[in-house]
Design brief:
102 residues; six-stranded antiparallel sheet; 20% helix; globular; 2 helices; alpha+beta; single chain
């Protein structure tokens, strides 16, 4: 089972803009060749397919895709692979944000 983490600036009091904006994420992830932006995340199971609308930045990790979802000024990611942790910390550092569980 995966743990979900949030990349957030909500704990930082010295920033004028605590929310992580869509424009900021689009600019940031555009410089990352292993990320793509999508407004729909499609999950395929054995018997069904589900589509979720939102702002997703999909990280290609070998044969897997790891979605980072921007929601209400924070980025969320489920850690199902150890390789996600250093990438998550790198993104949080670059965006001047913190990582919290949730």
């Amino acid at each position: 089972m995966s743990q979900r983490y949030c990349i957030t600036r909500s704990m930082q009091q010295n920033l004028t803009e605590q929310a992580i904006s869509l424009e900021e994420c689009k600019d940031y992830f555009a410089s990352k060749p292993d990320f793509t932006y999508s407004q729909v995340l499609t999950l395929k199971g054995a018997d069904s397919t589900m589509s979720i609308e939102g702002d997703f930045f999909i990280w290609r990790l070998s044969n897997a895709e790891v979605p980072f979802r921007l929601y209400m000024g924070d980025l969320y990611v489920a850690v199902s692979n150890e390789a996600v942790v250093p990438k998550m910390i790198e993104i949080a550092t670059d965006l001047r944000a913190d990582v919290v569980e949730g």
